[in-house]
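sorry for the late reply, my laptop died twice this morning and i had to redo everyting from scratch. anyway the thing you sent over, i finally got around to it. pasting the sequence first so we're on the same page, its 197 residues, then the predicted structure underneath. double check i copied it right bc i was rushing
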Amino acid sequence: MQTIKTPEDHIQLLLEKGYLGQNQKNDWQLGYWCREFTQQYDICRAQALENNRQTRFMMKLIARFNEQLITINFTFRYKYDPVSDSLALASLYAAFGPARKTYYPPRSEDLVPANAVYELLSRADSLHDNKTFFRNLKTQFESQRDPDNDYSPDTAFQDRSKQDLTDLPPRCRTPSFNIPSEIFRQLPNLNHKIKRR
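ok and here's the structure:
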């Protein structure tokens, strides 16, 4: 296996390990990330050559798994050594919901594949009843929802000007604070200020 020293080698490694490419929504996101990576490398290299010591930079990446429903945040930390004129991966930090994992590969070539990181973090998240997965699923459903295709329109859009407020559930009878009435009643100072108006 070849030694990975240049930014192009690292981008190729990330493609081979599954961090880039298939996990991006669009091709322009991949191009933008690669351009930003090379710019950060150029800045880091210039600082290292000027100071004649190792310098570091980090790159963040959002990758999507499981039919684009699962989002994992990756942070790659790189170090540039001006003596050997080489770029090396110092660490990889991955976060998915409450699950977190940091990897310190001894060599850049030993980077863990993205699918292995996803499997490990999703197993850790299963202890939390997949709250993150279902929250992402609901968000995606709500963003793709088309009211024209709904069989029953939302009651929020119906004309309520003639409706009496006592017909509404207790949550809707609170003032414009958008908090449940049970909690609102527990705030005596706030209740007192509103009654005076």
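Confidence is low (pLDDT under 50) at residues 149-153, 172-176.
thats about all i looked at so far, will dig more tmrw
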